Amino acid sequence: MGKREKGGFWVGAAAVAFYPMTWLGKRTYRGAEKLPATGPVLLVMNHVSHLDPPNDAVFVHRNKRVPRFMAKDSLFRVPVFGKILAGSGGIPVYRGSSEARHSLSAAHEALRTGKAVVIYPEGTITKDPDGWPMRARTGVARLALENDVPVIPAARWGTNHIWDGYTKKFHPLPRKEVVTVLGDPVDLSAYRGQPVTNKLLREVTDLLMAEIRRMLAEIRQEPEPAGFYVPLARQSAKRGSDEVAS
């Protein structure tokens, strides 16, 4: 067994806070061996519940890595939780401001120094009525293309059955199964070295999210939708804008 990556006081504090939260569900992990034991990795995940970060943090930590989450900057101002998030290496995402670029810069630096970065490209809990991944932001493609690191898609389902962030319904009992599945690293060699255009970023982003959607369909044992749900707010946003993801 490999050695655990050192995390320090705040990672320990996160573990104390997050492990009990995962006991709300019956955890099932598949493909955990695909997470590299050392070195940089970009873990790309879908987002269905406010319980996802604790669940995903514990998953990565149980595999002896320290997860560095990209998260909305407002979360860093939440009492106690914000301290834990910042202290454990979280990367704040600033949207709609001159600081937006710094979010990706910090994530690039984390990958270049051998860290495990976790990103939810949708930027928030999916607004798809049936819980499928919605149209994602393209910051994940920039990270994937500008860093020659393993880019691993992961799908998770079941946290939404415990805590639905949009209906505000909390159903801890009976305990629900929470399934997390890791896929193989996505081969992006055909895209590397090309001029980074909005079209290329969108293509790579959709490629990654399509793989996550495929794995999610296997977990749910349902046919996957043909496309990605696009919220009205994003439909009206400027086409081709440079987006970052939390």
Write a structural description.
This protein has helices spanning 9-22, 52-62, 81-87, 100-112, 139-146, 159-162, 198-220, 232-235, and strands spanning 25-30, 41-45, 67-72, 91-93, 116-119, 151-157, 163-164, 169-170, 176-182. The longest helix has 23 residues, at 198-220. Helix 5 (139-146) packs across helix 7 (198-220). Helix 3 links the parallel strand 3 (67-72) and strand 4. The chain has a single domain, classed as 3-Layer(aba) Sandwich (Glycerol-3-phosphate (1)-acyltransferase), CATH 3.40.1130. A seven-stranded mixed β-sheet has the order 1-9-6-2-5-3-4, with helices on both faces. Strands 7-8 form a two-stranded antiparallel ribbon. It has eight helices and nine strands. With 246 residues, the protein is α/β, with parallel strands linked by helices. InterPro entries: Plipid/glycerol_acylTrfase. This is 1-acyl-sn-glycerol-3-phosphate acyltransferases. The chain crosses the membrane at residues 7-25.
